[in-house]
Amino acid sequence: EEIYLKAKKNKLISKEIVEQLFDKNEKMFLSDRFVKGSCPKCNAPDQHGDNCEKCGASYDVLEIKDPISTITGTTPIKKESEHIFFDLPKKIDTLNQFLANANLQKPIKNKLKEWLGDDLKKWDISRDAPYFGFEIPGEKDKYFYVWLDAPIGYIASAKNWSNENNISIETLWGKDSEYEIHHFIGKDISYFHGLFWPALLHSSDYKLPTGIHVHGFLTLNG
């Protein structure tokens, strides 16, 4: 809530009407994790609603081909809903500076620059109920998208440790902290950690990561 409200205070939050996939049988909007289909980039079948495990592409769930609701196995329809957005394009200078200075492998840095230059759009940070996680303050039946709140858990964990060791979280993770912050992640979530996360941190006066170390996948028996 603190990070969201700071972003809102800094005029980085807005609302728009969007189209979503809706399961008529369950009478609910489908979050990305409840949709499967063919990748719009490489046509690989049976891929998740927001990213492809075969080619590594990230995409909007509405772009997926031949979508299926994993809840009922039916074809969802498109339906409108009001969503909340974080204005990522307003942070493009911050992100360019971050990519220039952060410790990142060259291929990952190049991929992030590609995304950064490819018509960067506002980030949809809300999901309609029913949804797991945290309700958005001041809104009805709206929840934070999991990739907004999940990395904030890093700060929560650090804060828990700092409280037990009599060190303030500002000393550890404040924007003027002298500590280094490193993330070790899989390549499928480099988009969230390399673009969305630094933008969120910068908008709420927390220090950006010193390094993001991205690992590929190990494939066994195909």
Short description:
The protein has 6 helices and 12 strands. The protein has 222 residues and is α+β, with helices and mostly antiparallel strands. α3 (106-117) packs across α6.
Name some characteristics of this structure.
single chain; 31% helix; three-stranded antiparallel beta sheet; alpha+beta; four-stranded antiparallel beta sheet; 222 residues; 6 helices
Please, could you describe this protein's structure?
This protein has helices at 2-9, 92-101, 106-117, 146-164, 169-173, 190-203; strands at 13-23, 28-29, 35-38, 47-48, 65-69, 77-86, 103-104, 123-124, 126-128, 142-144, 182-186, 211-215. The N and C termini lie far apart (43 Å). The protein is globular, with a radius of gyration of 18 Å. The protein has a four-stranded antiparallel beta sheet with strand order 2-1-6-8. The longest helix has 19 residues, at 146-164. It contains six helices and twelve strands. It has 222 residues and is of the alpha+beta class. α2 (92-101) packs across α6 (190-203). The protein is 31% helix and 24% strand.
Helices and strands, with pairings:
Layout: H1 2-9, E1 13-23, E2 28-29, E3 35-38, E4 47-48, E5 65-69, E6 77-86, H2 92-101, E7 103-104, H3 106-117, E8 123-124, E9 126-128, E10 142-144, H4 146-164, H5 169-173, E11 182-186, H6 190-203, E12 211-215
Parallel strand pairs: 7-12, 11-12
Antiparallel strand pairs: 1-2, 1-6, 3-4, 3-5, 6-8, 9-10
Radius of gyration: 18 Å
Regions with little confidence, pLDDT below 50 for 5+ residues: none
Report strand order across the widest sheet: 2-1-6-8
Q: Structural class per helix/strand content?
A: alpha+beta
Order of helices and strands: HEEEEEEHEHEEEHHEHE
Number of strands: 12
Mean pLDDT: 93
Shape: globular
